[in-house]
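User: I'm curious what two different proteins look like when written out as structure tokens. Can you demonstrate?

Assistant: Sure. I'll show them one after the other, since each token string lines up with its own sequence. Here's the first protein:
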Amino acid sequence: MADNARPSRMSTITDVAREAGVSVATVSRALRGLDRVSPETRERVLKVATDLDYVASPTATSLASGRTGVVGVVAPFLTRWFFSTVVSAIEKTLRGQGHHVLLFDLEDESYATRLTLNQNLLWRRVDGVITLNLPMTEGEVDLLERLGLPAVAIGTPVPGCPTVRIDDTAAMVQATSHVIDLGHRDIAYIGTVPENVAHIQTPMARREAFRDTLLAHGLQVREEWMLSCDWTADSALTHTMTLLQSASRPTAIVAASDEMAFGALMAASRCGVKVPEELSVIGLDDHHLSSVMGLTTVRQDVAAQGDAAAKLLLGALLEGLPLSPTLDQVIPTELVVRASTAPPPAAG
């Protein structure tokens, strides 16, 4: 080795800035292809970076630009099909624009409670936030404003933020009207929850829509057939078995989600009740297993909701587009009839 040889040192973004005669922030913008950099400056920065064998560090780029390239996705829990599906769609859309997801799972020990979103979770870690069916407290909304984080809500609205959602009321009307149109008059419901649960709006909206639809058709709402459930298949199985083993049972069950409908189908099987000859079951979601189970359901396009929310947020982050707090983007739902519903026995 020659006497004047020195150990090689990895070039930094500061080295590139010094050689190109520009600021570190300008180097970051030029290498990321952002605007506010002239073509001549960008070309000079790229040449210097190539000459110095500079490899951009995500951390250095973040410090220079004030951006992390990360979007926080906040959910009351992530173990349910809806949440995992929508997160996957968000990640795919963000990835196409060089951004990624940081998940904040606020699930607590109890179904009725959740953890609180705080500054330590968000500060300097994310560029924006997408909430998933999460009613936020006044303090959490104030936190987003203080940190200057743009936000988009999926499902449950967040004050001051645009919303992407389905019409839960209309979807439940579709489901309930389907079994009524088949001739069912003795109809039970699975999906009632205590009013203190962590994500109250969707369960409440679907329950009230079921009630209103029955009443609009002159049908009785039997309180003993309004089954409480934590929105899992296991819980629905337990409660439905109790219902089907009682002296009086319905000819149709409307479940507020497909996962609860799966529990109802299993309960019918264990109780020897034939579906759909003796009992019709309909869900809401179009879970990826619903076609396998032959479940009639009302389909919501979960991936489309995630994609739409991610595009709205990217528009604000990359193009400076305003996020209108009054924007309410409603994704349509669709009745999908399969093998789990039929006219009641008395109707032939």
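Here's a second, unrelated protein for contrast:
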Amino acid sequence: MDTMSSGLANYVDQISRVGGELGPMVVKGMFLLVVVLVLVKYLGSLVSSLLIKMGVPERRAAYSVTGMHILVLLVGALVVLNFIGFPAPLLFRVIMVILMVVIVVFVIAKPYIPKLPLKTGDVVKIGGSMGKVDLITIMHTRLRTFDGKVVYIPNHKVLNDQVVNTSLRPQRRLDIDFFIPYEADVAKVKEIVGEILKESEIVEEKPAPRVVIDKFAPGYMEMKARFWVQKKYVLTGRWGLNEKIKARFDEEGVKMASPRLEIDEIPTRGDAVV
């Protein structure tokens, strides 16, 4: 019994001695690790914003920040492990080997890494979602739709789905369709709409706007006003022009026709089918 108590006491003494020697180093190492993690977080946000302001695509900036995170964490781990007693030269060699392997893999794989066909601020349609891109990460793209929703789309879906980017070109073409009865004065209609387009501040001079008869239908003609605007007027430019065209038609006595919905007659059970 005495031997057991003596052995237990020696074991407790050894634990206390080791704890007294290593305890302060472990606490300091944990403190340094927390400092490194906080530094990585805020330094990453700062570097990412600076790269984007310099014109670096957001996804490439995200890759750069991720690489910087890994580098800072490795250096921080080296410092912490060295502080608590691990051999620094060995750790340095291991980290350098890891970095060299990562760099070689990145250089070889870089030409094969697909690029997203969009950037922050672009108005895009991806699948069934349309909105403005306000965030791009390594994993997903975030859209803010025009009805106030936030849509997260995985980047692999962006790369594999149809993407319509309406922000790449400075100009966009708009069409206004309206219906005119056959007895209307086509020349007068074209003159009225042409003047409205010419006087509008948002309509570009080149390509020149056009007003044409697009289709013939029973009881009316379908006319089209085609013109180009800067991309910032794509969503709202048509609304104001619609109001001006309607007001001028009322002033000039031009009547617009209503398109007809034609429904084929469905034969009843007793009717003969030819």
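A detail about the second structure: The CA atoms of residues 202 and 237 lie 7 Å apart.
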